[in-house]
From TrEMBL:
It comes from Streptomyces alkaliterrae. One of its GO terms (molecular function) is phosphorelay sensor kinase activity. Its EC number is 2.7.13.3. Residues 314-406 form the Histidine kinase/HSP90-like ATPase domain. Residues 201-266 form the Signal transduction histidine kinase subgroup 3 dimerisation and phosphoacceptor domain. The chain crosses the membrane at residues 7-27, 47-66, 78-101, 135-154, 160-186. It comes from the Bacteria. GO terms for cellular component: membrane. This is histidine kinase. It holds the Pfam family HATPase_c. It is an enzyme of class 2 (transferase).
Length: 413
């Protein structure tokens, strides 16, 4: 229902504005603001100033009604032109009003203002501050402001003209404030949308690394193992190829999932899940798969209750274990055992992954480093945790992450 109403409202704005300006024009004409157009320039008097005011009014109204078709630079130019003509008209009225009135039939200039032209200039002022290019808007805005305020003072300074100028000043200030407020709100919304899109891209980059690199690393390790045993034990090659095929299929599945999320995500929403959710079952599957692929022993120890973990914490635990096991495959050699130890305490969860191997030497084409640990540290920091890496006391390497479980600690991140 909302999507149907908005186009109708948007389409009705400018016809409504045109109707209101036309009504104001009829009101000004009924008050004699534009004088008699026939013979207005036969002599310089109130009828001449009325004709000048009518021309200035038509220009301001035309610029306002044409504003939807003007760009960020065209709109300030149109507003500046309308304001310049209005200021020129004010100067002409001031000069004509000071001419001596001696001849018969000359009508003196009394009230040199109407409502239609100020209304159009106020609309141009609001739109220019809202949509105009900053430099050109800064130049045309003072001209519009002055054109609205100075017109009542064209003939002279008196009690009535001061009161009218005061109300016009309030109206111009309100128009300036409205335009500036809308501009700042839109700029802030765009900034937040850009920030959300950047966060989404960063999150997608982490997930692509976590899921795809994990499976690809397994494929590389298995291919290296199959090549090394092909000559000595060829019967082990077909099972290794099956495992490579399975890991490749999992990598493609993960990549399709991530690409699908990239295509389907609605950037206007900030509550879109940016990554596949995972829990303890997926953590156990990771450890079991690692033992199957690597040929070494992998153990999972879980001390405490992990049934009621917040979604973001459970998913982060899964990512920590995935990245640590991927790094063991990439950078460790001669390892026989990998231990994944999860501890739940009152303050949070400690995830510790350690192996008993040695650093891998660069032979042939290295598996290389990347953004895994950096992305992991960023992911953990989002929910208020921290990551520490370094040599384990008993040898090998250890990755340890501490994650808070308190729902009040950035649970909506």
């Amino acid at each position: 229902m909302r999507s149907r109403i908005r186009p109708w409202l948007h389409a009705a704005v400018w016809p409504t504005a045109a109707a209101l300006l036309f009504g104001l024009g009829l009101f000004d004409h009924s008050l004699g603001a534009f004088g008699r157009l026939v013979g207005a320039f036969d002599r310089l008097d109130a009828h001449t100033t009325g004709a000048l005011m009518l021309g200035s009014t038509l220009l301001a109204v035309g610029a306002l009604l044409a504003s939807p078709r003007l760009g960020a630079r065209g709109l300030p130019w149109a507003a500046g032109a309308a304001a310049g003509v209005s200021l020129g008209t004010t100067v002409a009225i001031h000069v004509i009003a000071r001419l001596p009135v001696g001849a018969q039939g000359i009508t003196p200039v009394r009230d040199p203002y109407a409502l239609t032209e100020p209304a159009a200039l106020l609309g141009l002022l609001t739109l220019t501050v809202w949509r105009g290019a900053p430099l050109w808007a800064a130049l045309s805005t003072p001209a519009c402001f002055a054109a609205v305020i100075l017109r009542p003072l064209a003939v002279g300074v008196g009690e009535t003209t001061l009161v009218v100028a005061f109300f016009f000043t309030l109206a111009a200030t309100a128009a300036l404030g409205i335009g500036l407020t809308v501009r700042l709100v839109i700029a802030d919304r765009r900034r937040r949308e850009a920030s959300v899109r950047m966060e989404q891209r960063t999150e997608f980059a982490r997930d692509l690394h976590d899921f795809v690199a994990h499976h690809v690393t397994g494929i590389v390790i298995q291919a290296q193992g199959a090549r090394s045993v092909a000559a000595r034990r060829p019967e082990l090659v077909p099972p290794a190829l099956e495992r490579i095929e399975h890991a490749g299929a999992e990598a493609l599945k993960s990549m399709r999932s991530m690409v699908g999320m990239l295509r389907d995500v609605d950037e206007s929403r900030t509550d879109v899940p940016l990554a596949p959710l995972a829990g303890m079952a997926e953590v156990r599957a990771l450890v079991e798969e690692f033992a199957t692929v690597g040929g070494s022993r992998a153990r999972l120890r879980a001390d405490g209750d992990f049934a009621d973990l917040p979604v973001e914490v459970a998913t982060t635990v899964h990512r920590v274990v995935m990245e640590a096991l991927t790094n063991v495959r990439k950078h460790s050699r001669d390892y026989t055992e990998v231990e994944v130890h999860l501890t739940r305490s009152a303050g949070g969860i400690t995830v510790r992954i350690s192996d008993d191997g040695r650093p891998r030497q660069a032979v042939g084409q290295p598996l290389g480093g990347g953004f895994g640990l950096k992305g992991l540290a960023e992911r953990v920091a989002v929910i208020g945790g921290r990551v520490r890496t370094g040599p384990a006391p008993a040898g090998g390497w250890r990755v340890e992450a501490t994650l808070p479980v308190d729902h009040r600690v950035r649970s909506a991140a």
